[in-house]
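Give me C-alpha cells for this 363-residue protein.
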Amino acid sequence: MLSLWRSSSCILYSSHSRFKLNAHHLGIHRWQRRCNSSDSVESIKSTTTAKQKRNRTRCKVSTLDPSRLQDSDFLDLSNGISRARLVASTPILLHPSASSSPPERRRYPISIHYHGKTRLRIPFPAHTRGFLYYHRDPELPPISGALRFRVMPDSCTTTSGFGAGTDLMLPNGRAPWSIWLVTIANASKYIGVKQLLLSDGLVTPELLEHCKHLGARFGIPNGLNQMYRYTLFRLEQPFVLDLSSTPRISVVGPQGIERAVLTFTRVRNEERSGRYFFPYSGHCVVRFERSLAPEHAGKHVAVIRVLEILTPIVSTDPTYTPGHKGGLFRMPTVGSLLVKGYRPITVKADSDSHLSRCVNFLM
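Here you go.
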C-alpha cells in the first residue's frame, strides 16, 4: 500500500513551506527565552510533540489497481503543493505456511510533482482530490501503461464515484497528467511505484526490464516522460496537432523508439527571403491511417485524417493562398489533411526519412 510520508512539518512541499517552518521555530525559541519556569518549558515541549504527532498522520493507498481501490486510498493534493513525497508499502510474506500471520511490509520512497522543472514547478490544481491508479488502454500494447490521478466529483471521497471522475489534466488541458511506465522503470524516485505495480500484478518483471533497457537507450527519465505525451503505439492512434508549431512525435515499435518532426504545418514564403511561417493556428485531433487510394494498393502509404477541431482554425496571413508553389494544406476541416492542389498528405513507409520510419513502425 502507498502512504503519504509526513515529516515533523509537512510531506507536501510548496515554495513557502520552509519559510513558514523556520518562522514557527524562531517564535518558539523566543518564547522559551522569556519563560523561566520549568513547567512552561515542559508545556512548550508537550505542545510541539503533540503537533508533530498529529502531522505524522498518514494517508494510505493500498493498491494502484483501479478494480481494488478502497475508500481509504483517497488522496487530497489540492492545498497548493507542488511536490508530494510518498512511501510505498508492499507486503513480504516470510512464512507462507502460516496463513494466520500478517505479512510484513517493506517501505519505498516516492516523489511525484505536477508539472514543470525543479525551480519552476506548478502546484497541483485546486481540484486534485481522488485516487492514484495505473492506467492502460486495452487497445495499446502493455508498454503504453502509465500512472494517473483520477479526480473525484465534488464532495465525493469514495471509490463509488471513480467511474464518474475524470483524469487530472496537464496545464494545457489537452493531455492527462501521467508517469509513463518506461519512466517508472528508469527513475529511482519511482521505485515505490514499481514495487506496487509488481505486487498488484499489473506488470511483469520482464516488461519492466524491457522498459528499462528501452529507456536507457533512448533518453533520460524526465525526457522520456515528456516524450510519452507525443508517443504513438499503433496506427490510427489519435493525437493533438498544433498548427502553429512543428510537433515532434515518437513511435514505439518492436525495434525501439523512432522520432520525427512534423514539418508540413509550415510553408516557405518566397516573397519574404524564403523564410518559413505557419499559415494557420489552432488545434485539432488527427491520426495516421492506411491510404485506401487505388494507386496505393499493396503499398505501405499513410494519410493523415482530422478527427476533431479542438480550437478554431484561423489564418495567420490573409495574403497566403493555398495552392501556390511551396503551399501547404488548405484550412483543416474534419477529413483528410490536404496539400496544394487539394491532394491528401501522404507518407510512404518505405522511404528513408524519420517520419517514414515512424509510419513503418506503426504499420
